[in-house]
Amino acid sequence: MTEKEIKTIVRATITELRQQGLLQENVKLCLQVAGQRLKDYYNGKTDTQLAEVLDRLRNDVYFEILPKYYKDGDTYETIAQDIHTSVSNVYHHKRRLCIEIYSELL
Predict the structure, then answer these.
(1) Looking at 5-9, 40-44, 86-90, which range is the least confident one?
(2) pTM as predicted
């Protein structure tokens, strides 16, 4: 069995457990893992798997929050002013996108 086949089986199993409510994500861990990978990526570290996930998310209305936060180091307040929304909206969508990224990186 190849590594790719094993990963496919593991992803399917995790997805099924989540759907049945038997497995829940530790949100803090999701945010830490995704956040670190985003920081590394935006600081020049090659991460083809993350690059593919980001390409799929580029059409998200709030996608620009990620490079502003992780690459430019902008604060929630600065980002909110730049994209004409509230700080809580920036926080919510950064968090949502990070959780989505984490889920796809499994």
Answers:
(1) 5-9
(2) 0.76
Q: Domain range for residue 51?
A: 25-105
pLDDT confidence band for 92 (50 / 70 / 90): very high
d(CA 68, CA 75): 8
Q: Answer yes or no: is 19 within a domain.
A: no
- In the Cβ-directed half-sphere of 67, how many Cα atoms lie within 13 Å? 11
What Cα–Cα distance (Å) separates residue 104 from each residue in 1, 54, 74, 90, 99?
22, 10, 25, 21, 9
Tell me the Cα Rg of the chain: 15
Give the C-alpha separation, 42 to 78, whole Å. 18
14 falls within a domain? no
- What is the rounded CA–CA span in Å between residue 84 and residue 50? 27
